Amino acid sequence: MDDATRALLALWDTTEETVGGLRPADWARPLARTERARACAALDTGGTDVTDLVTHLCGVHYAGPDRLQEELAAAHVRAGRHLTHLAPHGEELAAHCLDMCLHTHDLLAALDRELNRDAAEAAAAAACELVVGVVPRLLAHAPTPRAASLRVVVRTSSGVVVDRVVPTTGHGAPETLEADAVALVLLLSARRGADELGDRVTGSGPTARRVLAVA
User: Fold this and answer.
1) What is the pLDDT of residues 55-112, one digit of tens each?
2) CA-CA distance, 29 to 42, in Å (whole number)?
3) Pairing mode, if any, of strands 149-156 and 175-180?
4) Distance between CA 18 and CA 119 in Å, rounded?
5) 30: Cα separation from own chain's centroid
6) Per-domain residue ranges for the chain?
7) What does the pLDDT look like over 19-66, one tens digit per residue?
8) Collapsing DSSP states into helix, strand and coil, what is residue 112?
9) CA–CA separation, 17 and 158 (whole Å)
10) Where does residue 59 rank: exposed (0-12), middle (13-18), buried (19+ CB within 10 A)?
11) Which residues are CB-contacts of 2 (< 8 A; sequence separation ≥ 6)?
């Protein structure tokens, strides 16, 4: 089993453990959203509160907390079987990783807790293969002049996991956008702004900084 799959299963573990420990008032806690995520239905998945998110994960509607906890445990088992026996890879695995990175983050953030960066980074690194594809769409909103190209470098504690050059249709000097894997997933999914992520995301020039500003 690869590192991304192990990290994905650990995210399921964290989610089930967290839901199992919810207090009655926690089920109504709102999910934190940036203005950009609220404005885009494609980014604002999982509903508006903790109950909606757990319902989304287990697929059972109109159920109380006890039933939702049971169904989430069953969904966890199904996910484990799928990942163990079918061993998805490539874009399918990346999509699973992206989903669970965001859902686990959203659940923990609603409870004023942080996603464990070290535990999630292998899943986030796989997810970055998809989210880096958002960068050209963000550049479409960046004013000219633009850099001739933007190099996107994504790191984990093990080293560089993504190093991709994105053409920008500009004519200026090439620039670089660097981030750790978890930070880039949260930034490009509009879960966190660049100001919240600090030096975990950096841009070497005005085009890169514009991406950070509109993400």
Assistant:
1) 999 988 888 999 999 999 999 999 999 999 988 888 999 999 999 999 999 999 999 9
2) 21
3) parallel
4) 15
5) 18
6) 3-127, 130-214
7) 999 999 999 999 976 566 655 555 556 678 999 999 999 988 888 999
8) coil
9) 27
10) exposed
11) 89
- Mean of all residue pLDDT scores within the chain: 89
pLDDT at 40: 55
Residue with tokens 């001739």: 148
Give phi and psi for 153, each to the nearest 5: -115, 125
* Alpha-carbon gap, residue 98 to 210, rounded angstroms: 24
Of 103, 163, 159, the closest CA to residue 128 belongs to 163
How far is residue 13's CA from residue 160's CA, in Å, rounded to a whole number?
Answer: 27
Domain 130-214 indexed as CATH 3.30.1050: yes
Contact 166, 149 (CB under 8 A): yes
Q: Which residue has the tokens 């445990």?
A: 73
pTM for the full model? 0.89
- Across the strands, what pairs with 155? 160, 180
State pLDDT tens for residues 167-209.
Answer: 887 777 889 999 999 999 999 988 999 999 999 999 988 888 8
Instruction: State the amino acid at position 97 in one-letter form.
Output: C
- What DSSP line would sit under 54-88, residue for residue? HHHHH---S--HHHHHHHHHHHHHHHHHIIIII--
112: left (phi over 0), alpha (psi -120 to 50) or beta: left
What pLDDT, on the 0 to 100 scale, is given for residue 44?
Answer: 58
